[in-house]
Amino acid sequence: MSQLQYYAPGSVEDAVKALGAGGRAMSGGTDLLVQLRAGRLPPGPIVDLKNVAGTQGIRQENGGWIIGAATPAALLGEHAGLVAAWPGVVEGAGLIGSTQIQNRASLAGNLCNASPAADSVPALIAARATCIVAGPGGRREVPVQAIVTGVGKTSLGPGEFVLEIRLPPRPPRAADAYLRAIPRTEMDIAVAGAGADIVLDEAGVCQDVRVVLGAVAPTAVIVAGASAALVGFRLDEAALERLDSAAQVVCRPISDKRGTVEYRTRIAGVLARRAVAIAWERAEKRA
Amino acid sequence: MAQVVAVSSDVLAFTGGETRFEVAADTVRRLILALDERFPGLGDLIERRVAIAIDGEIHRNAWGAALRPDSEVVLIDRIGGG
Amino acid sequence: MSKVHIRARVNGDPVEFLAEQGMTLLDALRDELGLTGAKEGCGSGDCGACSIMVDERLVCSCLMLAPEAEGRRIETIEGMARDGGLHPLQRKFLEHAALQCGFCTPGLLVAAKALLDQNPDPTETETRFWLAGNLCRCTGYDKVIRAVMDAAAELRQAHSA
Amino acid sequence: MTDVIDKPKQDGPDLKVVGTRPVRPDGVDKVTGRAAFGADYRLPGMLTGRILRSPHPHARIVSIDTTKAKALAGVKAVVTAADFPDLDSEEYEAGESAADIRDLSLNVMARHKVLYDGHAVAAVAATSASVAEEALGLIEVVYEVLPHVTDVVEAMSPTAPLLHEGMITQGVTPPPTRPSNIAKRFASQRGDLEAGFAAAEVVIEDSFTTQAVHQGYIEPHACVATMTEDGQSVVWSSSQGQFMVRTYCAKLLGLEVADVRVIPAEIGGGFGGKTTVYLEPVALALSRISGAPVKLVMSRDEVFRATGPTSGTAITVKIGATRDGRFTAAQVELKYQAGAFPGSPAGAAVMTALACYDLENFSIIGWDVVTNTPKVAAYRAPGAPMVAFAVEGVIDELARNLGIDPIAIRELNGVRDGMKASYGPTFRNIGFQETLQAAREHPHYSAPLAPGEGRGVAAGFWFNVGGESTAALHLNEDGSAVVVTGSPDIGGSRASMAMMAAEVLGVGADRVRPVVADTASIGFSMLTGGSRTTFATGMAVTQAAQKVVESLKARAAMTWETGAEHVAWENGQAICLDPAKDVKALSLAELAANAARTGGPISAEVSLNAQGAGPGFGVHICDVAIDRETGHVAITRYTAVQDVGRAIHPAYVEGQIQGGAAQGIGWALNEEYVFGDDGRMQNSGFLDYRMPVASDLPMIEAVMVEVPNPRHPFGAKGVGEVPIVPPLAAVANAVRGALGFRMAHLPLSPPKVRAALDRSG
Description:
The complex is a heterotetramer of chains A (about 290), B (about 80), C (about 160) and D (about 750). With about 290 residues, chain A is α+β, with helices and mostly antiparallel strands. Chain A has helices at about 10-20, 30-35, 75-80, 80-85, 85-95, 100, 105-110, 120-125, 225-230, 235-250, 260-285; strands at about 5, 25, 45-50, 60, 65-70, 130-135, 140-145, 150, 155, 160-165, 175-180, 190-200, 205-215, 220.
């Protein structure tokens, strides 16, 4: 690994050029360096995106939020405005590894590493977040769920990289949440995860909901039946039971060292319920 | 006469399952020699694999340890540790 | 493959060194700068034995490439004791017997200091979760947590005095 | 907080240093990053080594071609098994128990066959890590892949692939005619089993399994080795015994012991896993060819794949009791995975299985079984935790079935002084009943449980060992002292060595500085393991200090022109008892300053073979809360009570108890070796090999019950191993309490707990 080439461009143009020449994008490096070291990825030149203009920092624009792709996850949790607006997204980012990892790992890295278990991804998809992708053809904005196409695979073309992640403005009585199940209490990969974003009306009835599951399919999956289960209803046990079933329906997990098909499927239902209940409670408080 | 009890599986394999012996010995060294005389080769086995509990205290590689006439002597497997 | 020339500030002092481009910062600290206080326990960011501060942020130096250190301010365990005296955390670790083999201790101390720098009055739960990235196999964490909480109390008292 | 329950002082020495909690002498080095561990050494001209490991769990090595690797610029040496002597089988005692030197050699470097994923097949030394890594890729090994077996029960099947084609089971009469993977049968019995069960009014039987787990020390194995052209060698390495490393290196490389000097590095945890060699002989072989010092450091992946886990096991236990809770008979059969070569701790498991209990009738059968997994190494009370998990689980069920309090049933059946241990000898000066009583009286035991929580209790036993140790004590000219031992300090033992010497000399602990010396600088000492160091090496230290005191008294007598019998040693000074003399006391410093005039330097060295290490008992109480939807088990409260002899440095005794309990909790809840169908380990990193992190555990309350060991000058006994014996069962019994049914297969990880809940409806 020590013979790798390292390149840290300062501009989007230089980064695109370096990536187009076969470089591998790195932001925090907390996944990439581990995979390179373990030989799970073939060695290749590394393009460090942390110095690229626009990849660092969190800012608000037109009511929405723009998060630089290489911004360390810890900064999300330290940003009071973002925590207030998107607590679930922050929760997801805040579960990527230890305190040490939090100071390096980024949303874009967590996304583009394309692990089915990435903790920040379900919450981002639930939040209807988008990515600004920079590449040889300029910039394009795509929904987060369009980036990952399979285990370890993304839709990014040669020379392309994620420059920013954007979160939409929040209506009142809207909130999100993310939960995961791990064998320990920290330092684990999600055996299953659930992100939920919910919008209530003034009466406390669900107007809109999106629930997204992680680690139960090759990519994060949207619970198609969540709207049918919840929209038009108040929060009660029956609604959560419907959601639980709807969540289990979309699961297509594998059995591996971290969990079985049955376990992942059942837990996905449990987590979906719990995440929605948390998001619901948060939304009610924002009346 | 020391009352010797064999518990070690290795020893039992040697003695053909016989578990109790009376041995005239006042030290571990003499005990081993006497046992080896009775079961040729057992002495070597004891030196390599067996610990000797004398009145409840476990000894190994302790030729000089004294045996009283009424001593309880137990041949057990050696214990390691972590 | 040519080595790169890196300039950084380590424990307050300017340093320069050459490193292979794919070398980890941990290896550079240990092999190029002779700072062997940070340890490699896993090489994958799971044990925290290599914890250091980079620009006042706690990181695993095994998950950072040496060239990334260019222009950064780095603090290691070697810089924790100042002016001939131990840091209160170091002292409390000794008083509470919060170490047995001592291999994870430098990483735990650097991580604990990062905690107290940003949260002078952590709860036991906050301390345990903050330090979850630092594996210790000897102590069962009991005395480690007590030492950190006790050091925090002493530091608070020193600040308010 | 932590309590010390003091027994009335029996022998009553007024101890001033023993029992206090001074800062450890090596502490500042360890909190400042100065302490040099195995990988921290660096020599001029040093090469970096790397080891090529088998990707197959079982294969014949058809050929190894190292030509291309040797030709790579910067490569200075390449070795394979051909560079080591092809040794004959020979039992040799240098580690914790006898090892077969041939097996050890084959484990260090595979010859003809690889027996597990990660088995070393070749090694290189080069001018840099990157060159060494590139060279590994140029070594061409042709394997003929063979069928493999990793599970202990499957390996016992007559149709299982054979690891060692000539292996005939030992301990079976008549010996089997066909080879198998069963290396040895152990048996232990007493009384009349049938009659015992016939007398029982309740019989509980259950089968249990545990998975292979790793010691999990945070420091990977590391060494630097150098050999000159005439064979003289120096090794710097992190191990539990520099003399063990010396012996094994000399044997494996065909060197004279006198030509090998081993310098102990600080050791970053061992727990039994560093009681053998993996890297040192390889580094020496590479140095022999290259003529330069060679450093070898394992990655975490290598540590998991190629170094000692302890056995995965399958255990069946049947215990009968009368209605009033008295055990009438017990039957235990245990199958222990040895890994690639014979030598699981099945024998010790047979001996400890029922050691806590007074039983008239029992039968215990143990099987040592080879599998295509790394050769097991010692792990803290080797063999005992797994069988305790099974036996204590069945006792828990008996107590529930009979409506008897779980501590009461153990008090009723627990061993006492004068009873014959299940493994043979009669117990003397044991503290099991005192430990049970302390657990019963502890506030934790009577504290109410929250709804849905469960509480478990379990007991555990370990022998502890003594053995050979050397210690030297040198008095300095200002009255301070140096105590030198050959026992690596894993958990703070240098502090207790200094304290014991200081106690005898009558000075403060900080006046005695301890050193762990290399093999050329102190007499032979067995490795640090078996909970022996504070007991055995401590005994040598104490005796050396006593010799120094005798010398000091003689010199005071010379000064006063009186007989030595008229001199007493009190509080660090010589007192003249001769009524004819009107003299002031002579301090240690004064006597030390006059050493040259009174006969020369004052020092003493004692070598001994300590016998009579007292066994230890532990009783643990564990509370759990279970998330019945996710299956997650949280430990909400944990108390570990242990009979510790006398605590020399109580804080480090507590530390041993807390650390052992934490390891046992990890074993119970989430740790396990996971092998794929391809026989490869699936979780060879700390992410998926889940040791407890700080947020997984509560405070672990250590309660020390002091029943002094009469064989030690201060009553000390080993304390390091007992605490890992009860936790597996304590956790499982607590989970049983919370769930209402028993889970008998470790680990009790969330997927398994949830699946069990689903099955239970």
